[in-house]
Structure formats: structure tokens, C-alpha cells
């Protein structure tokens, strides 16, 4: 089992900005926000809500287990993102590198909300923690 580790926003930014990297093939971002999946997201992300994540786990593994790097995120990456990353890591049988985005979407949007290569569907919200 590959143990999940944190990835800094700047590291993920470099991956996304690298035009030789193909989302879904070279890396995958999985956003596990539930009803709070709104206000902005990372382009090419797939949303697998944490409230039924275990139900979609087998499908996620069968479709994306060949992607070398998978990054989980949620609002702050304190509970849902790390929990789903651990659940994924405990079932996948590959050499994937599994990360959790440090600071979650709050941190990501704080830094990159104005960069259309890094954020889509951004909506200014009172609920963002910045």
C-alpha cells in the first residue's frame, strides 16, 4: 500500500501548468467535496463526494489505477480528502503516488482564483476562508 502524503499547491500548479502532462493520464485530481462542491474547482478534476466515496471506490480504481499520480482534495484537506486518500490507498494495488492537496480548495483558491488555467467555475463566496 502506498501511503498518502501531502502535496503543496505550488507543486500541483507546476504539474498542471506542464503542458506535457495530460490530466487523467499522467495525473488525476479527485475532489471529494459533497454539497460544498461549488464556488470553484481545479480544471479536469473529478468529483467523487465523500459521503458515498466507498460506493465509487472500485470504479475509481478500475478506471484510474494506471495514472501514476493521484491527488485528493476537499474544502481544507483536513478530514475528507485525507480519509478518502487512505481508503483509496488501502485498496489499490499499484505503485501510484497518492497525495492530498495541502490546504485544500480554500488554499488553492486563495492563491490561484484569478488563473483560468488553475481554477474554473470560481464564484466569490462569503464561505471561503480567505
SSE sequence, one letter per element: EHEEHEHEH
In what range is the share of β-strand residues? 5-15%
Number of helices: 4
Overall number of strands: 5
Average per-residue pLDDT, rounded, comes to 94
Strand line-up of the largest beta sheet: 1-5-4-2-3
The largest β sheet comes out as: 5 strands, parallel
Low-confidence stretches: none
Cα gyration radius (Å): 14 Å
Question: Which shape, going by the Cα principal axes?
Answer: globular
How far apart the termini lie comes to 35 Å
In helices, the fraction of residues equals 25-40%
Structural class: alpha/beta
Protein name: Rhodanese-like protein
InterPro entries: Rhodanese-like_dom, Rhodanese-like_dom_sf
Pfam family, one: Rhodanese
Organism: Gigaspora margarita
How are the secondary structure elements laid out?
Elements: E1 5-7, H1 9-17, E2 28-31, E3 46-47, H2 53-64, E4 69-73, H3 80-91, E5 97-101, H4 104-112
Parallel strand pairs: 1-5, 2-3, 2-4, 4-5
Domain Rhodanese: 23-117
GO cellular component, one term: nucleus
Protein name: Rhodanese-like protein
Amino acid at each position: 500500500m502506498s501511503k498518502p502524503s501531502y502535496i503543496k499547491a505550488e507543486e500541483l500548479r507546476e504539474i498542471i501548468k506542464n503542458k506535457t502532462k495530460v490530466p487523467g493520464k499522467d495525473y488525476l485530481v479527485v475532489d471529494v467535496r459533497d454539497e460544498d462542491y461549488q464556488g470553484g474547482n481545479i480544471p479536469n478534476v473529478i468529483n467523487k463526494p465523500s459521503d458515498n466515496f466507498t460506493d465509487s471506490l472500485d470504479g475509481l480504481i478500475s478506471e484510474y489505477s494506471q495514472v501514476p499520480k493521484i491527488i485528493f482534495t476537499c474544502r481544507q484537506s483536513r478530514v475528507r480528502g485525507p480519509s478518502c486518500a487512505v481508503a483509496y490507498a488501502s485498496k489499490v494495488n499499484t505503485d501510484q503516488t497518492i497525495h492530498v492537496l495541502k490546504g485544500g480548495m480554500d488554499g488553492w483558491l486563495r492563491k490561484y482564483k484569478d488563473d483560468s488555467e488553475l481554477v474554473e467555475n470560481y464564484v466569490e463566496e462569503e464561505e471561503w476562508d480567505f
